[in-house]
Every structure is written in structure tokens, then in C-alpha cells.
TrEMBL record:
SUPFAM superfamilies per UniProt: Periplasmic binding protein-like II, Winged helix' DNA-binding domain
Superkingdom per UniProt: Bacteria
HTH lysR-type domain: residues covered: 23-80
Protein name in UniProt: LysR family transcriptional regulator
InterPro entries, A to Z: LTTR, LysR_HTH_N, LysR_subst-bd, WH-like_DNA-bd_sf, WH_DNA-bd_sf
Coiled-coil stretches noted in the UniProt entry, renumbered to this chain: none
Transcription keyword on record: yes
Length: 216
């Protein structure tokens, strides 16, 4: 009776077969941006995510790899030994990813999208929204205009903006869809001691302003 023995796979190949997890490319892209910028604050200028969002991404990446990738030296983030090794692999993977998207993605560059929003939203949600949009649509071109609601709607009416995120209820526009995305209640803020005064000093923005109209 004879028996045959199959050759065993090399250790490296066996280890690769056991790996079933994937490293999300958006995490690697943020990781490389931070490594090149030296801080999360400076990386936000290129990756279009807030510092808190980048911090959560790096925590997730370290959890996936079970490795600490950064260490602090003063205010600067410095790569650990594992981080140095990863950044080389990450650049190669991202280059290959971008090449695939360039060759096999959309046949033509999409039309640019022009977005207008009031300062209230630009200060709070703009970075996160653009960051998520860029990850899902890496080839899309987006321009943002920040201004007052009336100004932005005027640009929309003249076909200079595709989407407007503004304050207040506005009349329906031909060929456009209007959707209320959130509602909030305006409140008065001030020193209780001035309530009984015959004249109240107010701090208001210049017209046109929805808050000014509501207050007066």
C-alpha cells in the first residue's frame, strides 16, 4: 500500500491564505495623508475630513491591523515602525486603486457639481459631507459657494449653482425640487435683566437675513 504526500505551501503563502480581512482604502488614504502632513489638523486640508473623523478612522485602522501606527512627539505625529512599513504598502495599494478607477471606472469625467450653502452649515457639516462624498465619488468635481440664503438662491435661479442648502421656507422654483432637511426652533438669548427695558439692544446681521426678519 502506497501513500502520497502533497507538498505543503510555503509559510508566507499559508499565512496569506488565512487572511480574510480587507483594509478599507479610505482608511489607508487618510493614513497616508496624515503621515505626509505630520498632523491630523494639516491632513484635513487634503482629505476633507474633520480631525475627529480622522481620529476615528485611525483608531479603526489600528484595530483592523492590531498595530499602533502613530506616536506623538510634541504636537507632531510620528510613524511607529509598523506605520513606516504600512505607509509604503498603502501608497502602492492606493496607486493601484486609482489606476483601476482611471482605466475601468467612469468612461468620462463627470460634470462638476456646484453647491451653495449658508455659513451656518459651512462651519459645521461641510468638511464631513465633502469628505464622505469624495470617498464615494473620487472623480467628482465639487465647487462650494458660501453666502446668504437670498444670494445663493439668486445664483441658483441664474443656473450658477446646482444645489443650495439655505435657511427658511422659500417658494417653489420651476424645474427644481425643494426638500426640508431639518427644522429647528429660534430662541432669544440675552441678559434677563434687560427684559423690562422699554428698548432692547439687538445684535443682528445685515439684511437680507431670515433671523433679522423674524426678530423685527
Amino acid at each position: 500500500m502506497s501513500a502520497s504526500v502533497l507538498p505543503s505551501a510555503p509559510p508566507a503563502e499559508t499565512a496569506l491564505r488565512r487572511v480574510t480581512r480587507n483594509v478599507p482604502t479610505e482608511l489607508l488614504r487618510s493614513f497616508v495623508a496624515i503621515a505626509e502632513a505630520g498632523s491630523m489638523a494639516q491632513a484635513t486640508d487634503t482629505i476633507f475630513l474633520t480631525q475627529s473623523a480622522l481620529s476615528l478612522q485611525m483608531k479603526r485602522l489600528e484595530d483592523v491591523l492590531q498595530q499602533k501606527l502613530f506616536q506623538r512627539e510634541g504636537r507632531r505625529l510620528v510613524l511607529t515602525a509598523a506605520g513606516v512599513e504600512l505607509v509604503a504598502y498603502a501608497r502602492q495599494l492606493l496607486e493601484l486603486n486609482d489606476r483601476i478607477m482611471l482605466q475601468l471606472g467612469q468612461a468620462a469625467d463627470p460634470e462638476p457639481v456646484s453647491v451653495g450653502m449658508v455659513q451656518d452649515f459651512a462651519d459645521t457639516v461641510l468638511a464631513d459631507v465633502l469628505g464622505r462624498f469624495r470617498l464615494e465619488h473620487p472623480r467628482a468635481r465639487v465647487t462650494v459657494r458660501v453666502g446668504g440664503s437670498a444670494e445663493l438662491l439668486e445664483h441658483f435661479d441664474r443656473a450658477r449653482l446646482d444645489i443650495v442648502l439655505c435657511l427658511g421656507r422659500h417658494a417653489e422654483r420651476s424645474g427644481a425640487q425643494t426638500r426640508i432637511v431639518a427644522e429647528d426652533r429660534m430662541v432669544w438669548l440675552g441678559d434677563p435683566a434687560i427684559v423690562d427695558q422699554s428698548e432692547l439692544p439687538l445684535v443682528l446681521l445685515e439684511p437680507p437675513c431670515r433671523f433679522r426678519e423674524a426678530a423685527l
